[in-house]
Amino acid sequence: MVMGRLFERQLAKARRGNGEVDLDILARLVTAAYDDAECDRARTDRSVKLMAEELERAHAHLFDAFAAVPEGIAIFDAEDRYVLWNNKYAEMYAASAYALKIGARFEEVLHAGIAAGQHPDANSREEEWLATRLARHRNQASSHEQRLPNGRWIRVEERRTSDGGSIGVLTDITDLKQREESFRLLFDNNPVPMWVCDRDGLRVLAINDAAVTHYGYSRERFLSMTVFDLHPEEDRAAFLEFIRSGQPGTGDVHWRHLRADGSAIQVVAYSRNLQYQGNAASL
Questions:
Q1: What domains does the chain contain, in order, with CATH numbers?
Q2: Do 269 and 249 contact (CB within 8 A), yes or no?
Q3: Does the predicted model carry a pTM greater than 0.70?
Q4: CA 274 to CA 39: how far, in whole Å?
Q5: Looking at the chain, which terminus has fewer C-beta neighbours within 10 angstroms, N or C?
């Protein structure tokens, strides 16, 4: 069709005033036009080839990056079948890695993992664990921690994609869990009253035994309180101003706190900011 219109244009150019066609001129025009068209086609072919090569290189770079990231990553289609995963993912789930195949269903691999001891938290409660794990996987977004049979811990974060599939990212958090455990041992057994509160509402998140003993509140009562509740009503405005200043407690200010029996005690408070169970908090 395109070549036919090209010929018609050259024919019109070769036509003399009396309506006759100059065949020599027509031959030269048509030859030149077809040569130009062939050059255009060749240039287009080269462009397409270069684009294909560039896409292939980009795909190779993306695949190399996918394989090299320190997190385990798996991609699933809309039917929860495995599409792609990297070596780190298979390494983290080593006991059930034999079941990883393109097209394998996520639930099937979970069953294989339970049978192989990949998920120690499922022991003696396999059906309950499986139902909970599948429910999390089907959510639009989810995050939870998993214990592995080798004693390491991972955080599993999953997100649904726009095509109905999903992507899962596994991050090794063993070092973080060990630091949390060390903190917990130092915190729980410390003879000095201590608590952790969230930085926004100052709600008490954790309390040690020394604080329970010293203040007289039950652990349950303490965990329902805010730090404001420990201050007499007339002292709370000054405490709020101190909190808004963003200054850490360095022991240079004396405060009054209320015990469970209503008696007031003088305290010197020290504080520092930290992350507690993923939340901005203060100790």
A1: 1-47 (no CATH), 69-172 (3.30.450.20), 178-282 (3.30.450.20)
A2: yes
A3: no
A4: 68
A5: N
- The beta-strand segments (E) located in the chain are 72-76, 82-85, 141-147, 153-160, 166-172, 195-198, 204-207, 250-258, 264-270, 273-276, 279-282
Task: State the residue for tokens 């070596």.
Answer: 87
For residue 156 the two structure tokens come to 């599993």
Q: Which tens digits make up the pLDDT trace of 37-78?
A: 666 666 666 765 666 566 566 555 666 666 677 888 888 999
What are the tens digits of pLDDT across the range 161-180? 888 989 888 889 888 888 77
CA distance 197 to 261: 22
